[in-house]
């Protein structure tokens, strides 16, 4: 009962921020044929907490990948509230041909108390569907954010969701056994209070920039 009461309280009191405005695709100018980046997932890909996609996750990641002077063409395919099943069924068909697909999911599956085996199965099917559409594209699975760091969540609800988010992230990491699939756990240090938007649940521009930097280093390394 305590957890249900806390969940209802958080839902009622947390400000509902819109997704990022403006185009969901763009080009960072540079040399040569553009590197094609697609980012797929939940509200963080929808850009909640940022004014537009240029300062949200996808735009920040595209600029990081363009630091060596190459051109990067980017596409953000996100939906607030989407879990892995919805993303697979409704968003994967919207992804354009890409050299790399970054998948950012897990928070909604955590909130829905999805089990780790079920989440892994959903992600596996998502990767297979992506490759069925795009060919042998590289996939980077962004780690499920550690929900122990979310300021909007009171205890003990925070502790329960933290344990679930950790379990889902470990399940996602097992997909690294698939050639061309990489998993990058999120460093909890990225989620200090300054990283969050005004709702204290989603990243703000600073949080997106930090996260994009770690993802880009994983891609480039």
What attributes does this structure have?
6 strands, 221 residues, alpha/beta, globular, 6-stranded mixed sheet, 8 helices
Oligomeric form: single chain
Content-based structural category: alpha/beta
Instruction: Please outline the major beta sheet.
Output: 6 strands, mixed
Query: What is the general shape?
Result: globular
Q: H/E order of the elements?
A: HEEHHEHEHHEHEH
How large is the count of helical segments?
8
Distance between the termini: 47 Å
Rounded radius of gyration (Å): 17 Å
Spatial ordering of strands, largest sheet: 1-3-2-4-5-6
User: Approximately how much helix is present in the residues?
Assistant: 40-55%
Mean pLDDT: 93
Low-confidence stretches: 3-10
| Approximate strand percentage | 15-25%
Give a count of the beta strands, DSSP E runs of length 2 or more: 6
Characterization of the model:
- The chain has helices at 2-13, 43-46, 57-65, 84-91, 107-111, 116-134, 157-173, 205-220, and strands at residues 25-28, 31-41, 70-78, 100-104, 138-142, 181-184.
- The protein is an alpha/beta fold and 221 residues long.
- Mean pLDDT is 93; it is low at 3-10.
- It has a 6-stranded mixed beta sheet with strand order 1-3-2-4-5-6, sandwiched between helices.
- It is 41% helix and 17% strand.
């Amino acid at each position: 009962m305590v957890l249900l009461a806390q969940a209802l309280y958080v839902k009622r009191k947390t400000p509902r921020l819109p997704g990022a405005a403006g185009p969901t695709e763009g080009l960072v100018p540079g040399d040569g044929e553009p590197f094609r980046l697609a980012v797929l997932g939940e509200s963080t890909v929808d850009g909640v907490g940022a004014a537009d996609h240029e300062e949200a996750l996808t735009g920040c990641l595209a600029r990081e990948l363009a630091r060596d002077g190459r051109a990067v063409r980017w596409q953000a395919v996100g939906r607030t509230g989407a879990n892995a099943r919805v993303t697979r069924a409704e968003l994967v068909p919207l992804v354009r041909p890409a050299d790399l697909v970054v998948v950012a999911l897990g928070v909604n599956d955590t909130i829905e108390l999805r089990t780790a085996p079920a989440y892994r199965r959903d992600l596996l099917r998502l990767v297979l569907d992506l490759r069925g559409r795009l060919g042998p594209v590289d996939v980077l699975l962004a780690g499920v954010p550690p929900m122990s760091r979310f300021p909007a969540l009171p205890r003990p609800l925070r502790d329960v969701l933290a344990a679930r988010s950790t379990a889902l992230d470990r399940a996602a990491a097992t997909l690294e056994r698939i050639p061309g699939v990489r998993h990058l756990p999120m460093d909890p240090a990225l989620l200090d209070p300054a990283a969050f938007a005004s709702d204290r649940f989603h990243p703000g521009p600073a949080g997106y920039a930090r996260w994009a930097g770690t993802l880009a280093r994983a891609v480039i390394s």
